[in-house]
């Protein structure tokens, strides 16, 4: 359970993602498609295609 008062940001990628991309491909997706920094203190949630 994530408590809302922790200050942790959670980002959800609503489009299905091919999980064969592995960590480098997912980081690139965060950077280019979501326009976010993949190294910030946050949780990025992806749904499999």
UniProtKB/TrEMBL annotation:
InterPro entries reported for this sequence: Transposase_IS66_Orf2
Pfam families on file: TnpB_IS66
The protein, known as: Transposase
Top-rank taxon: Bacteria
Lineage: Bacteria, Pseudomonadati, Pseudomonadota, Gammaproteobacteria, Oceanospirillales
């Amino acid at each position: 359970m994530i408590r809302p008062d922790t200050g942790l940001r959670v980002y959800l990628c609503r489009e299905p993602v091919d999980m064969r991309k592995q960590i480098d491909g997912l980081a690139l997706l965060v950077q280019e498609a979501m326009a976010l920094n993949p190294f910030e203190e946050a949780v990025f949630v992806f749904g499999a295609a």
